[in-house]
Amino acid sequence: MPAESPAGAPTPVTPSTPPSLPPRQPATIQLDIIMTTASIAEQNKKTVLAFYKEAHFDGDVDGAIARYVGDTYTQHTAGAEDGVEGLRAFINGFLAAFPNAKGDIRRVLADGDLVAVHAHWTGLVSENGDVGIDMFRVENGKLVEHWDVFAPVPATSRNGNTVY
User: Fold this and answer.
1) What is the dihedral of CA 23, 25, 27, 32, to 10 degrees?
2) What is the pTM of this model?
3) Which residues of 33-50 are buried (b: 16+ CB within 10 A; e: fewer)?
4) Phi, psi (5° rounding) for residue 45?
C-alpha cells in the first residue's frame, strides 16, 4: 500500500534500482542443438533418397555407391553379401532379375543417423506389388549399414487399411 502524504494524498513509491545483473544467455542455445540434430536427420534423408533414386530407379549403381556409400558397409539382408562389393552385386542382380521393377516411395522417416524408406514396388513377384521397408544407418554423410523387409501386398485386408 502506498504511503500517504500529510494531506492524505498517496505518495508515489519509487522502486529501488536492482543491482546490476550479468547479461542473460540467449534462450536459443538448446534450440540450436535441436535444430542441428534435426538438420542432420534431414540431410541423412536427402542422402538416402538420392542413393535410392540413383541406384534403384536410375540404375546408376556404381555412381550412387561412389557418391553415397562409405568405405565399409554392413549388410543385414540375408540374400546379400556384406560390404560395398556385396551391395553392388546385390543391386545389380536385383536390376537384372527385375528389369520392369518400379518403386514408389510412400514415406521417409529419419531419427538421427537412421533413415527408413517405406516403398511400394511393382514388377517384382507379387501380383499386387510388394511393400518394402529399407532402413539405412548414415555416418558422416555416407550409408554404412542396411536392413530391409519385404512382403507381398495382400489383395484384401481384414481391417480395411492398406499397407501404406
Assistant:
1) 150
2) 0.76
3) eeeeeeeebeebbebbee
4) -60, -45
Give the pLDDT confidence of 21-65 residue by residue, as tens digits. Answer: 677 665 555 555 565 777 999 999 999 999 999 999 999 999 999
Please state, in angstroms and rounded to a whole number, the distance separating the CA atoms of residues 23 and 133: 50
Sequence ranges of the domains in the chain: 29-152
CB 44 within 8 A of CB 138: yes
> Strands, DSSP E only, in the chain?
69-75, 102-111, 114-122, 130-139, 142-152
Q: Report, at the CATH architecture level, how domain 29-152 is classified.
A: Roll (3.10)
> How many angstroms separate the first and last alpha carbons of the chain?
67
Q: Band of the pLDDT at 8, cuts 50, 70, 90?
A: low
The strand pair at 142-152 and 69-75 is best described as: parallel
